[in-house]
Amino acid sequence: MLSQITITDFAIIDSLSVSFSGGLNILSGETGAGKSIIINAVNLILGGRASPDLIRTGADRALVEALFHVPAESPLSKSLDNMDIPFNGEVLIKRTISKEGKSRVWINGSLGTLQMLSKLGPNLISVSGQNEHQLLLRPDNHLFILDDFGGLTKERIKLNELYRDYYALKEKAERLRANLKEEEERRELSQFQIKEIEEAKL
Asked: Which ranges of the chain would DSSP assign to H, the alpha helix?
């Protein structure tokens, strides 16, 4: 869950910090008040395109920070572990944009990449606009949603680990079978060549 987002020198925003609580949170305001800018800042945290044009006029860089609270049993914890990023139930993402167009990313204090954000993003938050394809409508997410609803997240993670182990062993067995077949073919070829040499009486 997105708990807080802090925006500095981004578009027309000088400095803004918004906290969110559990349940429904509503951002309201007149046209031009900056609601879309907040959504754009969230997209930036999720790995969206960065441009110097997003820096507020007169500033040297733009900064967006977002704090997420994530259950320890979430699949996200495994992804962070694979990235060697420390995780204690919170994910703090920080992204800056410089006038030169350079963008830097930090995840829980560790330097990250846009590829990391793109991988983590779908497990952190889903941003859906009018007529956009929503996360709930994607069939490949239905089992995850059902597992989470049924409290089976830990079992799903364990099953994924067992399947990865099984698949690794299966690939190893297939390589061994291929090696045995290759050895058998070489043995048969050697026997054939020996037979030809013997018959030629060289």
From this structure: 35-45, 75-82, 114-124, 139-149, 153-200
Mean pLDDT computed over 91-98: 93
Contact 60, 43 (CB under 8 A): no
Mean pLDDT rounded to a whole number for the chain:
85
**Hey, is 133 helix, strand or coil?**
coil
Ramachandran area for residue 67 (φ above 0: left; ψ -120 to 50: alpha; else beta): beta
Question: CB–CB of 17/6 below 8 Å?
Answer: yes
> Does 131 have pLDDT greater than 50?
no
Q: What is the pTM of this model?
A: 0.59
**Residue pair 78/162 in contact by the 8 Å Cβ criterion:** no
Confidence at residue 172, expressed as pLDDT on a 0 to 100 scale = 92
What domains are there in the chain, each with its CATH number? 2-127 (3.40.50.300), 133-202 (no CATH)
Q: Please give the Cα distance from 112 to 125 (Å, whole number).
A: 18
**CA-CA-CA-CA torsion sign (48, 7, 85, 76):** negative
Residue with tokens 């030809």: 196
